[in-house]
Amino acid sequence: MDCKMAKEFLSKNKVSYEEHDVSKNPKKEQRLIKLTGSKMVPALLFKEKSFVGFLKKPEILIGFEANKERIQELVK
Asked: Are 34 and 43 in contact (CB under 8 A)?
């Protein structure tokens, strides 16, 4: 349910995203664990550029409902 809510929210707010079904792709599951230390989904990774054009360290959030406020801030 959390994954569905995350996709609906991102689509509604016109935020492009990549979807990976880790249950069908072991390499993506290993990357998820490397990035987050967990198999918990959804994991949302936000990248943003600094004022000089370089990418800042990505912000990784695990779970949609628990992080909804922060996600709303990031997509504004």
From this structure: no
